[in-house]
Sequence to fold (81 residues):
Amino acid sequence: MSAHAYVNLEDVPLRLRETSAQRVGDESGVTLVAFDGCPFVGHCELGASQIEYPFPRAPELRGALVEWLLHWSINFYVIAG
Fold:
């Protein structure tokens, strides 16, 4: 079973959005988004306002992502599938 965390772009503080690194994936066409200090690179579909992150099974990695989101008061939800 895998899980993904989702963040609405407007919930990310403007300061983080302005300093983010973004690029369009070569073959996939999705935009890869890296925020300062975030342990993972997220991705979003063209024109979408939602960023998707892998939600790791490993407690240390999962905890690092959750701590970063909570530190910046970014709302998120997780869907397991």
